[in-house]
Automatic annotation (TrEMBL):
GO terms for cellular component: mitochondrial membrane; proton-transporting ATP synthase complex. Belongs to the ATPase protein 8 family. It comes from Atelura formicaria. Keywords: CF(0), Hydrogen ion transport, Ion transport, Membrane, Mitochondrion, Transmembrane, Transmembrane helix, Transport. This is ATP synthase complex subunit 8. F-type ATPases have 2 components, CF(1) - the catalytic core - and CF(0) - the membrane proton channel. It is found in: Mitochondrion membrane. The chain crosses the membrane at residues 6-31.
Length: 52
């Protein structure tokens, strides 16, 4: 089994690093979070008076 030259390891590392960076950035920019519907919270308008 032949040994790989160090320059080939460097080129392979650079290739995988660039691939990983491109893949991660594409995933980051493609992802769109689900849009949240604007829900209005209905509060009771009854004012309760506290008797201490």
């Amino acid at each position: 089994m032949p040994q790989m030259a160090p320059i080939s390891w460097l080129i392979l590392f650079i290739l995988f690093s660039i691939t990983f960076i491109v893949f991660s950035s594409v995933n980051f920019f493609i992802f769109s979070p689900p849009s949240s519907k604007k829900t209005t919270l209905s509060f009771d308008k009854k004012m309760s008076t506290w008797k201490w």
